[in-house]
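fyi for ur records
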Amino acid sequence: MTKTAAKAETAAPAALSTTVPTPAVLVLEDGRMFRGTSYGVQGTALGEAVFATGMTGYQETITDPSYARQLVVQTAPHIGNTGVNSEDAESRRIWVAGYIVRDAARRPSNWRSERSLDEELIEQGIVGIQGVDTRAITRHLREHKTMRAGIFSGAAAKATDKELLDAVLASTPMEGARLAEEVSVSEAYVVDPQDHGWDGEPRFSIAAIDLGIKAMTPIRFAERGVRVHVLPATSTLEDVKSVNPDGFFMSNGPGDPATADAQVKLLRSVLDEKLPYFGICFGNQILGRALGFGTYKLRYGHRGINQPVLDRRTGKVEITSQNHGFAVDAPLDGATQAPEERYGRVEVSHISLNDDVVEGLACLDIPAFSVQYHPEAAAGPHDAAYLFDRFIDLMADTKAAGTKNTTDSKTEDKK
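which gave:
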């Protein structure tokens, strides 16, 4: 080989370099801008800018309905390394309004990967931005609170800075947003234990209201022998009774809990029936409201798979998966009378070790409890899996007490 040929061979890779990346910009409602390049489809995405601290589980994150109408900033620098597969999605589609990453992996490397994350974003029409300083964005949101934002790429990014900011300021804030009905199923379906490794007849049956339920949640019940009737967010007490459940469940979901009057009314009706209740995330906020407590918006929320929570009853610390921007405003100083007095006493069972936010409620006089975090662990640690077993025990105890009361009543009648 000649020296000339050797030089040509060395230079070839540079000649095959990719096309120039398309510019993109992230605009926050306070005027702060972060410039990067397009990721996913080109266009405009508007929503609330929030950050998620998980190092893994990005596919579960973007398909979590609780992220509806939000632009998610991933604090982990490398996103997309393991690609996307058909098994890890937590719902039927991507729900994030936009996606913000530091370093997007264009070529995934994992034996389970079926396509790249970039390809999935493009296929589902999700606007993203990469190459931005996600640590700086996260720090800005921590210091100034989560806020409305917009991602603009391609032709949309050619507008003036003022035009881009005006578009962000014209977008809808998360406060007052009613989103559960938008992400919920329109028709009921059933998740059977036999389809998830359970051998034998179901132990119990529950009605689960889909406010944005993640796919793994009913599976966690089914693995334990519980048949799950997943019902739409618009369901009534009659709909719940029609499936003859042993227990009642309300899922996670997006939006402002202050707008969920219909779900609060439904839960109160269920509690009046003395049906055992378990709620997670949005379901915790609904229980709080049903008991008469208020809710409020957190400064920057809890989103990630490494959130420490204290179980005040046992003194144990759980590392939990969380995704919430609102919280219940309930007293932390022991058992207290619920503002809705017919429900008796209630106590805050779990608190965040980062900021003392209410992470769980336990009713002392009726069969009901809830947590603000995600025990289904998709993605995330399995520290809180016991909560599914606790609900099963609650249903068993309630059923046994009901049987005993019925037997005692019949005995009294005979006398």
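The domain at 19-169 is CATH 3.50.30.20 (Glucose Oxidase; domain 1). thats all i got for now
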